[in-house]
Amino acid sequence: MKEKKKAPIKKNKKIEDLSLNTVSTEDHFLTTNQGLRINDNQNSLKAGVRGPTLLEDFILREKITHFDHERIPERIVHARGAGAHGVFQLYKPLKAYTKAKFLNDTTIQTPVFVRFSTVAGSRGSTDLARDVRGFAVKFYTEEGNFDLVGNNIPVFFIQDAIKFPDLIHAVKPEPHNEIPQAASAHDTFWDFISLMPESMHMIMWVMSDRAIPRSFRMMEGFGIHTFRLINEQGKSVFVKFHFKPLLGVHSVAWDEAQKISGKNSDFHRQDLFDAIESGIFPEWEFGIQIIPEEDEHKFDFDLLDPTKIVPEELVPVTPIGKLTLNRNPDNFFAETEQIAFHPGHLVSGIDFTNDPLLQGRLFSYTDTQLSRLGSPNFHEIPINRPIAPSHNNQRDAKMRQTINKGRVAYDPNSLSFGCPFQAKIKEGGFASYTEKIDGRKIRERSPSFLDHFSQATLFYKSQSEPEQNHIINALSFELGKVTVESIKIRTLGLLNQVDKTLAEKVAKALGLKVPTKPETLMNHSFGADADPKKFQSQKGKKTIEKSEALSMANTLKHSIKTRRIAIITTDGCDEKSIEAMKKALTEGDAVVKIVAPTLGKIKGKNGTFIDVDESFLTFSSVLFDALYFPSGAKAVKTLLDHMEPLNALDEAYRHCKPIAFDEDALELWNASYSSKDLPKKTAPKELAAIGLILNGSPKEFIKAIAKHRFWTREKKPV
């Protein structure tokens, strides 16, 4: 009997009515959780367009409260992290700018704990996702804890905190299938971005190599927002905070990042842990950009706009001290996982500005710690406990550890003789900066925030040619994963306003054309009643055409500290050449591993036995910074019979890494596919210029490793 065909299931827009727990968002006005229709879901309520965000903004508080409590117990963002203890040492007192004691006493070392992290992925995701990296520093000062909660990118996607839940919901795995994890290459993220032109500067950074660092130790840190420093006289200056790594700023290739994720998803965490355990401590210079209060409006961008940088050509970064990480946590959960950062943890001499993203963070961080750590007593967890004594009349709540004596739990009081007393300003009492505020209560963006493209263009134009190619490839890859064509076209319209050539190359890779006119996005970027003419995105005047500080091509390239070098060999190798190379590399604090077909020992041609660190089964070129093939005719012949050495050679060549050969190991180079990319009569000097050392010179190899990568070996985008 022929089986009866089942009728196709028809989608019914009313199907949601069958369940009280299912809600449709189709054909409805946006409302609060109480059913109140929302007129503007794009801007928090402020005192004037450049004023502070108001506590009475119940829409902002409801939205962020819901967002902060969506996940337990891991962090909603920055869930996957690694951390370490260390110290901060000041170079020179900053009395002219701030009264903060730890920025005025060069005789003390301020203890710190630093937590690095990815943003979008869960705790179980990979270290090598294309993503922003968190760079959060807790200074345990004598006046209390100061938290500088930043990233490795100096700007952010959005200008107002009310959009943060939307941004994270868009970049997180899509809710219907929980895919993809720790990745922005999907429809919902680019749908959101294509409707938010203010994100374009951040997109340039995230699509650049900054989003796939070689190591936590080789990336910059930024406070993102503009803060204030206040001196003893009550005079204020604006300040931007920077951390610059003494190893330079370096990245990996995108193909390499994907392979590392498969080989060792803990690559960054292990790298940080191993460097500290070996005694080669990660170091950064802590620097500041100072902007006098009278210069607040002299730039062609707004200092309060978190999607903008202050170019170093306009305001140089002044190094003020060194941050050194010198001790790994004793227990990951107790320290790295339970540490609680908050941009509202300040000391006297440092204060906020009215940056609307910062203002929202001041509410959000305490709220999310209450959800994640379960109690307002999270400050009593050892890793969060200040070294400055804590005295107040707060009591009780879950997990209280302090045992308070007496019956007074209020202020003012006489039963405890008024204790604890309020501190006068001259006694270190914190007093907010007395900024004049005069404005209407309004949900509106300042017109000075409307230039969404100038700094995106500045960043792109400041990159070297290989770095620009990487941005083109990254955008082509990300948008190539998007399934909805209209989203791609909208994004191309935005990219065209950043740089026409960039947009054209990405469009070509996608098989599309750049739209002649970008889509009008005002209803998405501002309130429903916003006047599109008043809030039209614009491109401002260029103060500078390029900034050298924005390109990693101009970073430090003088050190091979902690770089991982694989010496690939086997029985019959030349012990002397291996010993000479290993000695030179380890004297430069590099990490050297002997790689052979099997573990155990190999026997050199002179009868010396050498310990093997890794076999071909566990070795991968993507976990190393450079490769060396020593001499030894028998060893070279054996290696030619294995596919692993040649695969590693070709892969390292593709990833633009330094590769060195002793002269009689050149058979391996000649047998590789990569050798066919170059003319046969290429001079040794020309090869050395692209990171291929054919004479086995330790000095030349070390020089090449310090340069990190030779990106000119890459194929250019189509």
From TrEMBL:
It is an enzyme of class 1 (oxidoreductase). Transmembrane segments: none annotated. It catalyses: 2 H2O2 = O2 + 2 H2O. It comes from the Bacteria. Belongs to the catalase family. HPII subfamily. Heme binds at residues 75, 115, 164, 361, 365, 372. Decomposes hydrogen peroxide into water and oxygen; serves to protect cells from the toxic effects of hydrogen peroxide. There is a cross-link at residues 342-365 (3'-histidyl-3-tyrosine (His-Tyr)). Its cofactor is heme. One of its GO terms (biological process) is hydrogen peroxide catabolic process. Its EC number is 1.11.1.6. InterPro entries: Catalase, Catalase_AS, Catalase_clade2, Catalase_clade2_helical, Catalase_core, Catalase_haem_BS, Catalase_immune_responsive, Catalase_large_C. The active site is at residues 78, 151. GO terms for molecular function: catalase activity; heme binding; metal ion binding. GO terms for cellular component: cytosol. PANTHER family: CATALASE, CATALASE-B. The keyword Transcription regulation does not apply. This is Catalase. It comes from Candidatus Criblamydia sequanensis CRIB-18. It holds the Pfam family Catalase_C. Residues 31-419 form the Catalase core domain. The lineage of its organism: Bacteria, Pseudomonadati, Chlamydiota, Chlamydiia, Parachlamydiales. Keywords: Heme, Hydrogen peroxide, Iron, Metal-binding, Oxidoreductase, Peroxidase.
